[in-house]
């Protein structure tokens, strides 16, 4: 319900700019952008319009269909096998991967995504 809760806040919090409302799926969004940037050898700041559908859980779906690099769509520059077999599952399971490697959560990443 992370996105639903964020949508409710954005719609009903008087005086709060809806563009200031985010959910922990922003953390997943950031992780996805970092992976694509690494794959393409570009800066994260040059990527825009990636969407993460679903919840902040392993069932989420990071979507690169509208992702742009300096204003140009990049979906056709990404190998479909990489997107489907590596990118999507890794974004969805990255939190668990970090906990397994570090032995604790990625609290600093979550805090950064919330700001």
From TrEMBL:
Judging by the UniProt lineage, the source's domain of life is: Bacteria
Gene3D superfamilies per the UniProt record, alphabetical? Lactate dehydrogenase/glycoside hydrolase, family 4, C-terminal (3.90.110.10)
Q: Which GO terms describe its molecular function?
A: malate dehydrogenase activity; oxidoreductase activity, acting on the CH-OH group of donors, NAD or NADP as acceptor
Q: Name one GO biological process term.
A: malate metabolic process
The answer to whether keyword Oxidoreductase applies is yes
Mention any Pfam family matching this sequence. Answer: Ldh_1_C
Domain named Lactate/malate dehydrogenase C-terminal: residues: 25-114
Tell me which UniProt keywords the record has, alphabetically.
Answer: Oxidoreductase
The protein here is known as Malate dehydrogenase
List the taxonomic lineage: Bacteria, Bacillati, Actinomycetota, Actinomycetes, Micrococcales
């Amino acid at each position: 319900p992370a996105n639903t809760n964020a949508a409710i806040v954005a719609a009903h919090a008087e005086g709060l700019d809806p563009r200031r409302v985010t959910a922990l799926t922003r953390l997943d969004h950031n992780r996805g952008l970092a992976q694509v940037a690494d794959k393409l050898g570009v800066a994260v700041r040059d990527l825009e319009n990636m969407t993460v559908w679903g919840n902040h859980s392993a069932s989420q779906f990071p979507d690169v269909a509208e992702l742009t690099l300096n204003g140009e769509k990049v979906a056709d520059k990404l190998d479909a096998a990489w997107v489907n077999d590596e990118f999507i599952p890794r974004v969805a399971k990255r939190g668990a991967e970090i906990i397994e490697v570090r032995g604790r959560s990625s609290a600093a990443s979550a805090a950064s995504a919330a700001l």
